[in-house]
Design a protein that fits this description.
mainly beta; Immunoglobulin-like; 6-stranded mixed sheet; 5-stranded mixed sheet; 2 helices; elongated
């Protein structure tokens, strides 16, 4: 009986000691003071367009409605208290069409009040449908021949490119399709800015010999933020 009582006392003491142990509270880490908290584009006709911020990846993903035909964006940027950002709040990011079509990077560097830095890359995209371009040379072994224009004699050799989902020129906004000629190494040799295009066709003149040497070229169409390149080449030569 005495042994039983001793065991009960020991068990009670153990439980009491356990109950009296202090519970440790682990504080969450303080938030970084070099963060971009919000990013929104304000130079749009309707409600502001917000970017999705990913602190872990260091990205700001911005999806622009293509029908705004923006050529520049003016963002309103909110950062951590006491932090600064470069390029700064409200600084215009221009030449958006080139950045969208060529993938040119825009990076924001945030400097916290403690001097720590974080970089956010702006990932730009639009809801513009992909474009498609029809081949001028159905048979790659028998490329279509295009003859140089000769501005000195006012001889301009025009031809048409067909496809779908081209953006008609927006002259007042400076939105035009471009026609690039890529050599056999894939390098752009010449690009023409075109002002005569519709949803499914683009009219243009063959460049002069001074602009584009004779040779085989694949043609790439860029319409606002989308590009499409012909698989088969055309042959450019002087008549």
């Amino acid at each position: 009986m005495k042994i039983k009582n001793l065991l009960l006392l020991a068990l009670s003491a153990t439980m009491l000691a356990t109950a009296c142990k202090k519970t440790e509270t682990i504080e969450p880490p303080a938030p970084a003071n070099n963060r971009i908290l919000s990013y929104k584009v304000t130079n749009v006709p309707d409600a502001a367009v917000y970017g999705a911020i990913d602190d872990d990846k260091g990205t700001i993903t911005l999806i622009l409605p293509y029908y705004y035909f923006l050529t520049a964006i003016q963002p309103e940027i909110r950062v951590s208290e006491g932090a600064t950002v470069t390029p700064g709040n409200g600084v215009l990011i221009d030449d958006i069409t080139k950045k969208l079509s060529e993938g040119t990077k825009v990076a924001y560097v945030v400097t916290g009040k403690d001097g720590s830095k974080a970089t956010y890359n702006l990932v730009l995209t639009t809801q513009q449908p992909d474009i498609a371009v029809d081949e001028l040379s159905p048979d790659p072994a028998n490329p279509l021949v295009l003859y140089h224009s000769d501005p000195s004699t006012f001889q301009f050799n025009f031809f048409s490119i067909t496809g779908k989902n081209f953006i008609p020129q927006q002259e007042s906004l400076g939105i035009f399709s471009t026609i690039s000629y890529l050599n056999e190494q894939g390098t752009v040799v010449y690009t023409a800015v075109n002002g005569d295009n519709f949803t499914n066709s683009i009219g243009t003149a063959v460049p002069s010999a001074a602009q584009l040497p004779a040779g085989l070229y694949r043609i790439r169409i860029t319409s606002y933020t989308r590009s499409a390149t012909m698989k088969n080449p055309v042959k450019v030569e002087t008549l």
